[in-house]
């Protein structure tokens, strides 16, 4: 059994020396342990450097009491007021360090304005402590009794995008990351899990206090607290040249622990796949998952501790999705919610990468096919509405899939690595990702980002093809029409042409509403496919709509043979509007089949068949074409 059980308190003693670090963190000269990229962050008067949050949870109801000590830096010449978000809570008092001097504040709605006794100069820092209590009504902070959860009393936070303010006063924007220490006091018997590393556990009468600390900056929506009577499944990943040993800790109810061991068995392999494909070691102190119920979503990628819906622990794609967010969302975080696809598209495409790791190209294609949901994609990916609509998940995953095809696997991996490393522990906009992509690719990708990220719609393609014999070769003509209501897309695409003995692949770029490509082939083509390997996001290629079919000039049609009468050869031409099983048979006047010229599945297109009748006597014959539900018969005369 790969999971090791241990008694929680015993383990916590092993880490207790770190408690000293929790009490007094070494700070860099600027007061921040990480030089955050604030150059691109939206203008704001102050930058939060560190949260020291202390929570006491009753675990009998939704009452919580807390204090949040906030260290911040002025980003203006004279900062007189710090404005934070604090929703549906009572602010008891606010003091200024180091003398615990009380400061004035106003609290209206979600806005908490704190007046500083004296202006704070540019880049100077100060520390305030806010004392508060609240009874959050299942927003931001959720409490359920044992009867309500069906197992144990449970309390957890769920903050994305703007609900951290319901359980802690904070600067509640994804672009203001800060380091954090979180202590949670709960009645003994409960286990309180949070982000970062557990540095100390303290027993105080009938209560237990858990001290968590993260060495890495975290956005407020990625902070969390999860409390219940949990069992802990512990494991670890051995160190690599890029990182230390990685502790893994999952929090589940005892009743779920055996199944969870089975469901979570691939987590270590998933981490290894992520590290390999992204080229970046797992970025944080630990990884874990905490199961909760009831839960309104599938999972939430809190930094170092995913919150998982207890009903979905079996879902490997969900587990992979939330894990991938540790890199894409947590390590590299969208600057504002307009760029949410930089979190969700990457996490969703990582589900595809996991399927590819398990089942190769076929599994990758199969997964990507399931993510084509154009009816749900009514807005551009950028600044999507609704914010968490499928466009920032499925369509954004397709954008990465297409970018990978455009760049090639080697450059795509280089892109992931360079983008991840450059913006590690910072925030990003779409333009940042595009810039790195163009840098790696060596050419502008403006057309790509414009049509896929900032515009709506996906291509709807219809195509037909015809062939004609030249002296020693075949001419293949392919006509493609983009029928979507949106303007034409630029679509670099592979065209696969099959003949009796080989398959040829031609790369062409579709640029306009109608495109025609002509190829000279050494062998007679038997079937033609656009993008057979499914690298381009598009709707069905099947010609099923009669109006659209007629636009392209394809219908079910059997032409009179030529020449007629004939001796001994003649040519039969026909046209198919859609892919179908097709037969072309020759009958004599008594209705006996004398020859079958075609018996195969054929694509939509125009066909030319040569009929050699030198083995047949003179007379009247009939040729019948059947394709799908269509059938037609014509008469011809052999005159020897
Ligand atoms: Zn996600």
Give the class from helix and strand content and strand pairing.
alpha+beta
How are the strands ordered across the major sheet? 5-4-8-2-1-11-14-13
Estimate the strand proportion. Answer: 35-45%
Number of helices: 12
Short account of what is shown:
With 640 residues, this protein is an alpha+beta fold. It folds into four domains: 8-255, tricorn interacting facor f3 domain (Immunoglobulin-like, Sandwich), CATH 2.60.40.1730; 337-453, Neutral Protease Domain 2 (Neutral Protease, domain 2); 461-548, Aminopeptidase N, middle-beta domain (Immunoglobulin-like), CATH 2.60.40.1840; 557-638, Immunoglobulin-like, CATH 2.60.40.
Structure description:
The chain has 640 residues and is an alpha+beta fold. It has 4 domains: 248 residues, Immunoglobulin-like, CATH 2.60.40.1730; 117 residues, Neutral Protease, domain 2, CATH 1.10.390.10; 88 residues, Sandwich (Immunoglobulin-like), CATH 2.60.40; 82 residues, Macroglobulin (MG2) domain (Immunoglobulin-like), CATH 2.60.40. The protein is built from 12 helices and 35 strands. A hairpin with an 8-residue loop joins strand 16 and strand 17. Helix 5 packs across helix 6, helix 7 packs across helix 8 and helix 8 packs across helix 9. The longest helix has 30 residues. The radius of gyration is 32 Å and the shape is elongated. The N terminus is likely disordered. It binds zinc ion.
